[in-house]
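look at this record:
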Amino acid sequence: MGHERSPKLTEVQIKTVESQDADIRLDRWFRARYPGIGHGVIEKLLRTGQIRVDGRRVKASFRLEAGQKVRIPPIQSTACAKQAKQIKINKKVSDALGQTLVNSVLHLDEEIIVIDKPAGLAVQGGTNISRHIDGVLDALSFGKAQKPKLVHRLDKDTSGILLLARDRVAARWLTRDFREQAIVKTYWALIVGELRPVKGVIDAPIGKTIRENSEKITVNPKDGQTAITHYAIVEQLGRKASWVALRPKTGRTHQLRVHMASLGTPIHGDGKYGGAKAFLDLQGISKKIHLHARDILVRRPNGKELFITAELPSHMKSSWSQLGLDSKNYRDPF
């Protein structure tokens, strides 16, 4: 699955806040359940008193308590409303990799394309890399005179959401928003070991280290670049492993992998930074890196929001099943 669609709300609903959602902001609680409904719409419904908590008017920043009743009015998801206007993805291309990208499109409009990048596929070329997304962007033109432009990157072994600009104007504001940290990205990972505290912020500069003709990114407080990662455990599997959500504030190369390894809890499958400790000794768990760009929130210059999610890749989906984890139980911990 790609774009996560909110259900149509055709009548007033009353939802009870569950214990695991206590202390979450109301707007974030709402968006986790109805991601297609933009922040502006939520704010308007709150101002007009259509969304209420225990019968009272509240603000978007109101923090919920277990057992409270949230009134949700009839409303149609903005994602559903836009769906009819979205461009049809019907282009056929001869190149196998190009066709793979066409099939991976999660969202397409006049400004933006969002694809679900497969794990193992490089975004750009480099030493010994001849097969990469940048080389076949023409396949994603969809009637435009120019091919789309890359505005951010994902590691080769990371799967999930990759956003592309369809023209120069979109490329400028998207590049600016990524640089100014206005675009919110959330990753899911399976980490090895016991992470403490269960929620926190890693503020550890990182930089490139060259040793014996090999390059590696390491924590480097003296000469490294600022690197900040917010993290939270979604579900803990004893002391052996945890499903974590990661929200990078900065976008340094291998940042999430280096930061998790620096805490002694490497991402499963990441032997480069975690060594032998980065592999769970459990039957049926793939040895591939378990790091997935799960969702992205973009606010356009006109104030409208775009929120897209990507399902877990097959190797992580299989691991989730083996470990008894259920993606449907996820609630934004930030």
Q: What stands out?
A: The helical segments are 26-33, 39-47, 78-83, 96-103, 168-179, 255-262, 271-274, 314-323. DSSP finds eight helices and 15 strands in the chain. The first helix runs from residue 26 to 33.
